[in-house]
Amino acid sequence: MYAAFRTGHPGGMTESPRYAGIVLAGGAARRLSGADKPELRVGGISLLGRAIEALAGADPVVVCGPRRPGYDAVVWTREAVPGAGPVAALAAGLEAVGDAEIVVLLAADLPGVRRSTVDRLRSTVASADGAVLVDAAGERQWLVSAWRTAAVREAMPERPENASLRRTLGGLRIAEVAAEPGESDDIDTPEDLEKHR
């Protein structure tokens, strides 16, 4: 249940709680003419592949969205009602993470997300129920976050379809993590895509 890793102390070991990853890879991408946004490539890798790479070390990595070929190491799931929004997708993902103490939640359209992003969020959860990336404008990026799994499960509404992620999780004790340049960017429009290509 716990993975050990080395600390900075010679010969020292400490326990780090096992964490899971949930990637939300649904959505209609209307502003991208219905393109399969998670499969768009930036820097030689798909956006979905970039999110999965950022979650290296997560067990399991759960992708909520239509099954796509080429991602053999992930667990696939769907909302009970496909297209019912991020809270419904999160609810489906939570059913697949088992007893992981921490869950990292990522969107599948983040060209700047990195393993270091995930590491900073995970380390910050120690002092709260959740840690959320905050962009340069001070806006919380709910789909770049890490949570105590038990706290999220407790906060989930009975009917998650079309519920607001901010309202669902906003009442928890949240620590904010300042985004590094580009880290909170997402791809919503053709212009966003060109900027990052």
CATH topology: Spore Coat Polysaccharide Biosynthesis Protein SpsA, Chain A
Q: What is the terminal separation in angstroms?
A: 40 Å
Count every beta strand, where a strand is a DSSP E run of 2 or more residues: 11
Order of helices and strands: EEEEEHEEHEHEEHHEH
Provide a descriptive summary of the structure in words.
This protein is of the alpha/beta class. It has one domain (2-196): Spore Coat Polysaccharide Biosynthesis Protein SpsA, Chain A, CATH 3.90.550.10. The protein has six helices and eleven strands. It has helices at residues 47-54, 86-94, 115-124, 149-155, 165-169, 190-196, and strands at residues 2-6, 13-17, 19-24, 41-42, 45-46, 61-64, 75-77, 102-107, 130-134, 140-148, 174-178. The strands form three sheets. It has a seven-stranded mixed sheet with strand order 7-6-3-8-10-9-11, with helices on both faces.
Structural features:
single chain; 197 residues; alpha/beta; Spore Coat Polysaccharide Biosynthesis Protein SpsA, Chain A; seven-stranded mixed β-sheet; two-stranded antiparallel sheet; 11 strands; 26% strand; globular; disordered N terminus
